[in-house]
Specification:
- This protein has 359 residues and is of the alpha/beta class.
- It has 2 domains: 183 residues, Glycogen Phosphorylase B (Rossmann fold); 147 residues, Glycogen Phosphorylase B (Rossmann fold), CATH 3.40.50.2000.
- Helices cover 41% and strands 17% of the residues.
- The protein contains 14 helices and 15 strands.
- The strands form 3 sheets. Strands 3-2-1-4-5-6-7 form a 7-stranded parallel sheet, with helices on both faces.
- Strand 4, helix 4 and strand 5 form a beta-alpha-beta unit.
- Helix 1 crosses helix 14.
- It starts with a strand and ends with a helix.
- 47% of the residues are buried.
- The model has no long low-confidence stretch (mean pLDDT 96).
- The protein binds uridine-5'-diphosphate.
- The site of uridine-5'-diphosphate has 15 residues, from helix 1, helix 11 and helix 12.
Length: 359
């Protein structure tokens, strides 16, 4: 089986790490990096740390409007697909790279396998929602992380092509947790200085357009951190680095520790040792859940309904009082409740592609 895998963004590198290792045991994979994330600590660091095979193609496409980026990617990916003639296109999640690759492959009648299919926020102002829906509707094999994803696909008439395999992010969490650095972890601050991770801290990630395009929302989120009983470690995504730095300085938010983006192993360590987690990331919500950490999600919509149980993950507006109040709520953990699979999603993903070769 020959598979072209297209990745472009941080969460896709993590999923590709576990699936690629499995896939390459028996099959040929051609890895394409669109270039959507390009800074060292958003891209190459993941390839190095997680032993992801070097991309066969790096398309170097990033920036511009959503349509500009998606259009350029489609043209470049089409060339790769025409040259490589794969049995499958494999894509993950919901980025512009996912959609561009899926559309290019669909027009060439190449079978598409979509991992993390069926995730829905029911918010069309969330740019990734469009990517998810369109990709699911042109894909031939929909591999789903959780039961709610299967329900969503059934509502859209796609049940015949959907299979529950579990979440490769959970596979990665289990596989790489053993390797996390826990002692003397040094953070590279945005000022360039180095600092140790405090003993007690909250972990914040926040980069969605909805929370970072204006000062108002991000300032409320940072003010919430300033009100907490311990500092907050906040690795800042390149897209909102300047704003976060300026707001912290202007408003003297000394309890917010702004750092460069950290690698995946450092991020796992931050999750596992944090007091609690504040985020707008789909991936971090799930990792908080895997690690049993209370999470407050600053979004208007639910991404992973399975995490919103027993006070384990609560939505909040970008409002300092609401965030701090919700962080205080107790959670209850039922250790037998594991809706993200058994940690072997990667194997099932490869098996499903093998089985569906002739369909
Ligand atoms: N992450 C990381 N370094 C950071 C912040 C996050 O490695 O500085 C990891 C995090 O642990 C999770 C993933 O990146 O595994 C989430 O990616 P992101 O928030 O970019 O995407 P989303 O989950 O929102 O699609």
């Amino acid at each position: 089986m020959k598979v072209v895998t297209v990745v472009g963004a941080r969460p896709q590198f993590i999923k590709a790490a576990v699936v690629s290792h499995e896939l390459r045991k028996k099959h040929t994979e051609v890895l394409v990096h669109t270039g959507q994330h390009f800074d060292y600590n958003m891209s190459q660091q993941f390839f190095d740390e997680l032993d992801i095979p070097a991309p066969d193609y790096n398309l170097g496409i990033s920036g511009g409007t959503h349509s500009q980026m998606t259009g350029k990617m489609m043209m470049a990916i089409e060339e790769v697909l025409l040259k490589e003639k794969p049995d499958w296109l494999l894509v993950y999640g919901d980025t512009n790279s996912t959609l561009a690759a899926a559309l290019a492959a669909a027009k060439l009648h190449i079978k598409i396998c979509h991992v993390e299919a069926g995730a829905r926020t029911h918010s069309m102002t969330n740019p990734e929602e469009i990517n998810r829906i369109c990709t699911d509707h042109v894909a031939s094999l929909l591999l789903v992380s959780t039961g709610s994803g299967c329900d969503e696909l059934a509502k859209e008439g796609l049940q015949d092509r959907s299979y529950l395999v579990g979440d490769p992010m959970f596979d990665a969490f289990r596989e790489y947790s053993g390797r996390v650095k826990t002692e003397d972890m040094q953070l590279q601050l945005l000022s360039g200085a180095l600092a140790s991770v405090p003993e007690r801290y909250y972990y914040l990630t926040c980069h969605r357009e909805e929370n970072t395009n204006d000062d108002k929302e991000l300032l409320e989120i940072l003010r919430a951190c300033e009100m907490l009983d311990a500092p907050t470690v906040y690795p800042v995504h390149p897209r909102n680095k300047q704003r976060a730095k300026r707001l912290r300085n202007e408003h003297k938010l000394d309890k917010v520790i702004l750092t460069e983006p950290v690698g995946y192993l450092e991020s796992l360590s931050l999750v596992r040792n944090a007091l609690k987690i504040i985020t707008d990331s789909g991936g971090l919500q799930r990792e908080a859940f895997f690690a049993g950490k209370k999470c407050v999600t600053i979004l208007d919509f639910v991404c992973w309904p399975e995490t919103m149980i027993d006070g384990r993950n609560e939505l909040s507006h970008a409002d300092a009082d609401e965030i701090t109040e919700k962080l205080k709520h107790e959670q209850r953990i039922d250790v037998n409740y594991q809706p993200f699979g058994d940690g072997y999603a990667s194997e099932k993903i490869v098996e499903m592609m093998e089985k569906q070769m002739e369909v």
